[in-house]
């Protein structure tokens, strides 16, 4: 019995000793890791508000995550700012990370880390699963040591100044799911065995200087979802092996130097594709027929290539509709087909389509520089005829039947032509001598009748409703016909449309009037300008706009819908609502991206299209109007309609000197 009791006491003391040793080891490890974090805080110059000295890093430090034993597993200093002293001599100094033996994630995106990537990431931090160094101003090359991170799942080195080749050994990272090297200066070729990264879901190598061709092994990445190789210098053709990317949703290879036609079976298995961007890549030939029936397609841009094909005359039975189709700058031809009913926004410009425009084509579709009947700015007859003749086809001459020259007209001699011309000229002269005196007499009588009219002289002051037989004169003395100038709305209609001019519908307050968004009974979206005659210095300012819209109209001038002039204290002018608001609000827009705080800017192609639209509107005002109209605003109020088509708003019209003498904008 005594022996058993001694044995039990011995076991208890051994257990207590092991427990104390484990607790001591845990406390020692936590102290060591806190010391390492303090060294990292000092070397990076982090602020006390983010990492306070007198605090538990696992509980009080921003971006620090620990496991249940208090060991640091994640560090996130994304977007942190250095102290004033830290900004004086910033360095990529993270040597103390080697003491964090359980570290699985290091995210320093958008934190200034000038210099090359330290070799310790691959030599010491072997437990890393996430390494995000995007937008850190990193220089140098991709270190070979990174290939030793066998647990690495995410490697993001985008938006830096990294150069050199992509290490061939990088393909040994078998657990990698995200690889982003975009927006650097990486050159050379894509590793031929990149298909070995069997777990890769996102690959972005865009905006570098990569050359050679697209490796066929990319088709082995069966779980790949996003592939972006755009804006490099790659050449050659697209390998048909890419059809093996069964889970691919985004395929972007725009802005390269590729050639040849697309493989006919390229899209045979890519049923999940949503975004395709092949613009400006040098492709030729016909498009694979499977492309037009991809069920999940949302965005298709193949502009700026040399595709030459006819649109299939079929409809698509899928419920989803494609947001945007851009096939401009190619050599598509033939008639517009029912296929376009699947698309909401289309750009078919700079092709060779012919025939009439069907009703199912979107009203805001871009159709310029084609061979179509009706729209302005089409190609010349000679260009269209030559193109179709090379195809072995006959051009329809814009729907006009060519006059056939018959050999039977050879009998018409020169003498007979002279006789017919003389007879016709005599008849025309007799008609002029008869009609001219009658016309002059009628005009004189009408002028005398108007001069003896009983109406009082002087101009109407524009306040109150118009008499039934009177119209308002413009500033030039020419009366405006309100019956033909837009629609006439009642005050109650505009109250209903704008929710009684509520603050929630207020768009902008201006010197010439307040702008409210509204919706008519038929669902049309409008903008109502409410002009107060009591608060406005010039109570006839609204006549300026009415006079302008009675004289001029252009696609780049905001459409005038109607007016309401029945109120004695307020006048209301109604315009069409522009879907994309004003230009300053559209240059930058929010996105779901975690980079750049979710703020994206318009691409330069869209900006160029907006600038061209503004130039068209101003050219019309300056050169096509008679007399010329010159604006005085330094920053014209520009609105953007569907697909970013620019229009000049009525706020600009108020500053036209020819309609508003004495007005000066500041």
Automatic annotation (TrEMBL):
Key words of the record: ATP-binding, Glycoprotein, Kinase, Leucine-rich repeat, Membrane, Nucleotide-binding, Repeat, Signal, Transferase, Transmembrane, Transmembrane helix
Localization per Swiss-Prot or TrEMBL: Membrane
InterPro entries the UniProt entry points to: Kinase-like_dom_sf, Leu-rich_rpt_typical-subtyp, LRR_dom_sf, LRR_N_plant-typ, LRR_R13L4/SHOC2-like, Plant_LRR-RLKs, Prot_kinase_dom, Ser-Thr/Tyr_kinase_cat_dom
Gene Ontology cellular-component annotations: membrane
Pfam families with a match to the protein in the record: LRR_14 (PF23598), LRRNT_2 (PF08263), PK_Tyr_Ser-Thr (PF07714)
Stretch forming the signal peptide: 1-25
Ranges for domain Protein kinase: 501-666
PROSITE patterns, per database record: PROTEIN_KINASE_DOM (PS50011)
Region (Disordered): 449-471
GO molecular function terms listed in the Swiss-Prot or TrEMBL record: ATP binding; protein serine/threonine kinase activity
Membrane spanning stretches: 417-444, 637-659
Protein topology in the membrane: Single-pass membrane protein
Protein name (record): Leucine-rich repeat protein kinase family protein
